[in-house]
Amino acid sequence: METGFIYCLLLSGPNAGQSLTPEQVNQWQPADGLLWLHLRYSAADVIEWINNAQLPATETDTLLAEHTRPRALSTADGILMALRGVNLNPNSAPEDMVSMRVFAQPQRIISTCERPLQSVKDIAQQIISSPGSIDSSADFLISLCERLTHRKVELIHNLEDELDNLDEQVSEHSSQTLRSDIAELRKQTVILRRYFSPQRDAFSRLLNDSHLLFNTEHKLRIREINEVLIRVIEDLDAVRDRASVTQEQLQSVQSEQLNKRLYFLSLISAIFLPLGFLTGLLGVNIGGIPGTDSHLAFSLFCAGLFAIIALQMWLFYRFKWL
Asked: Residue 175 to residues 6, 185, 218, 241, 255: CA-CA distances in angstroms?
């Protein structure tokens, strides 16, 4: 059976950077060093382990919850956080954000999620390649928040580049899918804002928290992360507003094109209206139609029609209708 224990790493102590087996995790003691467990919450062995880990009910429910909203909560045993990360998995939409829960205690960190998260992989690689570089729960939380926020900055830059490309296409009329592309971009901004704002509130909650895990330096780093996330949200709002303007511009261009076509059809109708009247009048099958006995009648009639067209065209130009 596939295990749900993704990472079991020691962050401090003489064996920092060492990976433990699930059996060794059960034998771990705080004296062995800070332990980080990253688990897939839907796995049967993980559900059993968490339920038997003697954690408070709130922490247990949050670590195993399928749906969570970004938040931060200080408890008597540690800090409980629910975060969202950009989905960089293959064939996935970035706005389909990956949910992650973290319960950090002074000597143990437990995090859970269902889908892979690149920020978690980066932290695990750092711990393995540079043992001791992250040696406290506060450092781990801050490193995780920094990486999650950095991915959001990259995502916003990609959205801005995509919007710039759509603006060019609107100006050049080079795409037939502009309406759906712009609508999809606006949909992405709405979904992302839904998760970015609560995550900003969670970081603000950490700033106002006096938990012993964080010292003054840690709070300064959290404040910087929060400032970056605030700028990300502002940039996201700017992208959403620009997308609205681009959509209005596209509608204006399409409306102008439609009006030009309708105007052209109106001119054609105006030209052929008198011609149709004359041909219909002379096409009735009754006696008295002039020219029936002359072989020049048809030629003269056609010449008269062309003369009417020329007169109409002169009048259109005279009144600046063309």
From this structure: 44, 15, 49, 21, 16
Chain centre distance of CA 256: 31
Tell me how many degrees the CA angle 135-136-142 measures, rounded to the nearest 5.
105
Q: Taking the CA atoms of 204, 208, 212 and 216 in sequence, report the sign of the dihedral they define.
A: positive
Q: Is the pTM of this model over 0.90?
A: no
- Is residue 71 helix, strand or coil? strand
Kind and range of the H or E element at 37? Answer: strand 35-40
For the record, the structure tokens of 28 come out as 């771990």
120, containing H or E segment: helix 118-129
Q: What is the pLDDT of residues 68-108, one digit of tens each?
A: 889 888 887 889 999 999 888 777 777 788 999 999 999 99
| Structural contact between residues 16 and 132, judged by C-beta atoms closer than 8 angstroms | yes
Neighbours of 298 (CB within 10 A): 10
Give the separation between CA 155 and CA 196, rounded to whole angstroms: 12
